Amino acid sequence: MSVYLLRRLIQAALVMLAMSVIVFIGVYAIGDPVEILISPDADQAERARAIAALGLDKPLWQQYFSFLGAALQGDLGRSFVFNEPALKLIGQRAPATLELAFGATIMAVIIGLPLGLYAGLRPKSFGAQAIMTGSILGFSLPTFWVGLMLIMVFAVQLGWLPSTGRGETVEILGMRWSFLTWDGLAHMAMPALNLALFKISLVIRLTRAGVRETMLMDYVKFARAKGLSPSRVIGVHVFKNILIPVVTVVGLELGSTIAFSVVTESVFAWPGMGKLIIDSINVLDRPVIVAYLMSIVLMFIIINLVVDLLYSVLDPRVRLESK
Amino acid sequence: MKKYAAAAVKAALSAFVVAGALPAAAQTLNLAVGAPVTSLDPHYHALSPNYAVADMLFDSLTAFDAQARVQPRLAESWKPVAEDVWEFKLRPNVTFHNGNAFTAEDVAFTIARVPTVPNSPSSYGIYTRAITRVEVVDPLTVRFHTNGAYPLLPVDLGQIEMLDSETHANPATEDFNSGKLAIGTGPFRMVSYRSGDRIEYVRNDGYFGPRPHWARVNYRMITNDAARTAALLSGDVDFIDQVPTSDIAKLRGDSRVQLSEADGLRLIFLALGHSHETNAPYVTDNDGKPLGRNPLRDVRVRRALSMAVDRQAITDRVMEGASLPTTQLLPPTAYGALPDRQVGRADADAAKRLLAEAGYPNGFRIQLNGPNDRYMNDARIIQAIGQMWTRIGIRTAVEGQPWATFVARAGRQEFSAMLVGWGTSSGEPTSPLRSLLATVNPQRGWGGSNRGRYSNPAMDEKLAEALRTLDDNKREALLREATTIAMDDVGIIPIHIQKNIWAMRRGLRHEARADELTRAQDVSPAQ
Amino acid sequence: MSATTAGSTAPAPTSGKVPRAETPLRRFILDFAESKLALGALVVFLAIVLVAVFAPWIAPQNPYDLAQLDIMDGRLEPGSVSEGTGMTYWLGTDDQGRDMLSGIMYGLRISLLVGAGSAIVAAFVGASLGMLAAYAGGRTDTVIMRLVDLQLSFPTILSALMILAFLGKGIMNVVIALIIVEWAYYARTVRGTALVERRREYIEAAQCLALPTRRIIFRHLLPNCMPPLIVVATIQIARAIALEATLSFLGLGVPITEPSLGLLIANGYEYMLSGKYWISFYPGIALLITIVSINLVGDHLRDVLNPRLKK
């Protein structure tokens, strides 16, 4: 087990290294941050000064190795735009995104699982057809459009919820969280729903597909034949079996929501990491992009690791390879 | 379910409001701006949203009024005492938020700090560079020695916010952001700053100038246009800037809100590529083959391209009235602008004749490039111009892309026709003449944003002379001559000057500014 | 584990249940026709494809030709008549004076091309790699899965910006960007299922028979990984179309003069608050109908194709 974990750790380091190289080359190819950040009034001498101040006058490989040297000592660089350590900026924005992503994922599971279960158990019923057709809506309309519709209906027309921004925060462990206040929850409702819509559809569909298949499996038929109560058959045998794809996909979705809820955060002016990364990409703030993506890749590796571990718990047929 | 939750939230919230905060609410201004602020260090990043925010906390020696004319602020008066020396008299009895007095030493300290801020991606040093030495004559008198005659010093100093030599002895950008050093002489004090979200201010009751109405200000950043408008309509904020043109008509018709507007100083124009003598990129004949000589170097072709553009149609249809059609660099009333220059009507037939004269009776093909995330309706404007050019026989392909890739390619001379904008925050024409139209010359610092590489020695000469002339009237005449030369030669094709539009709930009054700054001190309840 | 001697005569174990009298195709059609809803959706979808294919012949205007547009006709309400040409704009016009009806017809072409094109290629690449990872295990699995991690943590907008910088703007470049973004989803899903399947008895049986690897993967493993793959694929076609809309919203989508449905919606987005609903509403409806029909067909297809749901 520990060998297995160690190997995953080494792999993680290699992937992070690859990510940093790709970002360095990619950002270099896209353009020049100084061209974007500099005041139009600046002349050539000021441009040269700014390029030198940000260390962009050196050859790319040299910039990369000085980054790598500092990174090994835990310093991922300072933002070109904010002049603050990139990791600190990410840390400041992380709670807002984390609470939003978890809120959306919880919403998706709570709404999606029961609906999917119903649609899978009674596939021919009108309710199931309605659920399945309705679930298509969840991923057919662009997020930005749905987001604005939510704002127009619930904030502008009805006035039930605040339109944008994050609500009151409470400080815990040095971070600001808003999910513990009423105001915070009210502000979170619409963006979380906006993010959850796609996930709800996904969970419904995965659950239904899994249930339909599992119900025809021999062991389920056997369990039913044995006279086990329907709730026990579904709750234990069916449920356990459909959880694999659901856990995989929900895990991945949670990851990508944490990483890139760019559009929702923009539309709802939610001051999270998605907003930070898109703003940073727009001005090619390389230190933030590199630090952010390296953290994200680490997070995905951990999520995948957890998902793989969960597999082996949920389904004994999947064994972890350990030598 | 949600309905009840929401109702409960509302009830809980209104209970709070009724219990404690009713009088305070009337004195709190919630405003939302569209451009993100990147730093509270007033000298870190020369960017107008940063300047607007700093301008609520700090003060500069001179300041721009709503019409972008230079006015006294921390300085009471100024005059040149020699060809290369300016003397500024400071306002007495000004104190910083922490009680320290503002004196000439602070001016000297600030001027010394500005060019040395570490890691600055765009330094305010461009505004202090002309100063060779700061001489403190007495606590309220300071002399600036400049490198030769420098008439623009009072204008440049309007950009420099003053710090305290004691408080800010060892300032780091982070200390401004955390609030520790966000201490100025300005009308507001900072309470908190959450990057990318909001800045909270309280009034500085000891301010020397007019007392702002608002005891508290929530300065929020909502970068999405539609979301910002929605925040105003839902009552979450009282005031927004950068109203998208698509919402203007709707907001005008809404009895709950009102608009304020001012003619801006941001010129939207087309730059044409002069640097390629032959085979200009994206310029071909009608069969897609290379064209040989670059038609854009022929003034008749440039005139035809300018004449084909129906500026009034762009203002009416694309900008929904939020722009001023123009064929010069500044609004006609500005210092150094050409008051009598007519915009003229679009004339496709005359344009075709000019093209025929230049040897292109059947036109040619070109690609018009532009950003799609930078200026109001930028991608729409280039499509509209594409339609107009196609009508005179110049078949135009249109490509919009994000500023990040656009500006890199434009800088590499990869485009032959491109839409760009220019904000002249100083309100006078030397900045566009020097950066956009003057021949590229790194030693002089000219042509820094001349992406088409236009060059006209006659204009350069007039501009050089203007920059040496201290007398305001004589300089204005020279600047007008330089502008006329460049515009008659179609060095760039001006399209329009943007109007700046703000929207607020009814019952507020706002002094709309030409320079686009959004500051809480400009907003007050209507009488 | 030689893959060169693929024998095509041995029947696949899973197809043994089908009665010999019926051809598989006939059986498949009968199964499919069982659902009226799916059949209706198929008809709608075919109609949409026909409109998309024949748009240049049936659209009243060529919305991609700037010479045919006039900004003086911009933002006209549905049913308005052009002052210049006398043409009626049944669904109104957008900000450039583009006829929305024609814009939607042409936009369907682009959206279907982008959505289906990217989803099919990404599904092929992703599913192959995912199955390979699950079946081969060991180092192959590790490399592929870490590539997946890398890709999933890479923001779409950054991929799109990089492709824009390297290749310039264009519809095919958007397709490439979407493939790069999407293959990892397929790979991850398929690997998860295949990991379970490959431990099942029928695979072990096939291995005991010393069938070639390629055959085991494609004839035995793949059909049993199909149900979740089709779930993901039908969703991903829709998601690709919506993602293209998002890229357009961020200014990274298809060229502005050749709008897809997504770009039409993104353009109209700014007019939503001002009551000019038709600019994004009608393309939105078109997008909705397209995606619903694709998914209804896909849903049913999945049930029909699933070897384990056979009665």
From TrEMBL, chain A:
Residues 94-311 form the ABC transmembrane type-1 domain. It is found in: Cell membrane. InterPro entries: BPD_transp_1_N, MetI-like, MetI-like_sf. It comes from the Bacteria. Keywords: Cell membrane, Membrane, Transmembrane, Transmembrane helix, Transport. It is a multi-pass membrane protein. Its main location: membrane. The chain crosses the membrane at residues 12-31, 100-121, 133-156, 185-207, 242-269, 289-314. Belongs to the binding-protein-dependent transport system permease family. PANTHER family: ABC TRANSPORTER PERMEASE PROTEIN, DIPEPTIDE TRANSPORT SYSTEM PERMEASE PROTEIN DPPB-RELATED. This is ABC transporter permease. It comes from Roseomonas populi.
TrEMBL record, chain B:
It comes from the Bacteria. Residues 1-26 form the signal peptide. It is found in: Periplasm. The keyword Signal applies. Belongs to the bacterial solute-binding protein 5 family. Keywords: Signal, Transport. PANTHER family: OLIGOPEPTIDE-BINDING PROTEIN APPA, PERIPLASMIC BINDING COMPONENT OF ABC TRANSPORTER. It comes from Roseomonas populi. The keyword Cytoplasm does not apply. This is ABC transporter substrate-binding protein. Residues 70-439 form the Solute-binding protein family domain.
Automatic annotation (TrEMBL), chain C:
It is found in: Cell membrane. PANTHER family: ABC TRANSPORTER PERMEASE PROTEIN (PTHR43386:SF26), OLIGOPEPTIDE TRANSPORT SYSTEM PERMEASE PROTEIN APPC (PTHR43386). It is a multi-pass membrane protein. The keyword Metal-binding does not apply. The keyword Ubl conjugation does not apply. SUPFAM superfamilies: MetI-like (SSF161098). Keywords: Cell membrane, Membrane, Transmembrane, Transmembrane helix, Transport. This is ABC transporter permease. Residues 108-298 form the ABC transmembrane type-1 domain. Belongs to the binding-protein-dependent transport system permease family. It comes from Roseomonas populi. The chain crosses the membrane at residues 37-59, 110-137, 157-181, 229-257, 277-298. Its main location: membrane. It comes from the Bacteria.
